[in-house]
Design a protein that fits this description.
By secondary structure, this protein is mainly alpha-helical. The chain has a domain of about 70 residues. The protein contains two helices and no strands. The N and C termini lie far apart (about 60 Å).
């Protein structure tokens, strides 16, 4: 045997098999769509905002004495809202970039 010679592995069982073709109605994966993901994220942000509002109201009425708990819920809602705004900005930038493309 020559040291630089590469021997064949053998049949792979994949002969004659071609890659599946996708039609317009088929999706490449079964994960959630972009619309569903954004909708879910918006619902989460809304629930965090509502939770923060309720927490502030409870603190104002004296039901909650722990300021840390209130500030935590407010900051969590604020962070989620800022993240949502950044995602919106990136989506708008991408849309504007696509609109600039000449065909």
């Amino acid at each position: 045997m020559v040291p630089n010679q590469i021997n064949a592995i053998g049949p792979t069982g994949m002969e004659g098999v071609s890659a599946p073709s996708l039609t317009a109605s088929q999706k490449p994966n079964d994960g959630p769509s972009f619309k569903q993901t954004l909708s879910s994220f918006l619902n989460d942000v809304d629930s965090l905002q509502t939770k923060a509002d309720v927490s502030i109201q409870k603190m104002a009425t004296g039901e909650i004495n722990d300021v840390h708990q209130v500030m935590e819920s407010v900051e969590e809602a604020n962070t989620a809202f800022n993240m949502m705004m950044e995602i919106r900005n990136k989506v708008m930038d991408a849309y504007q970039e696509v609109m600039r493309i000449r065909l």
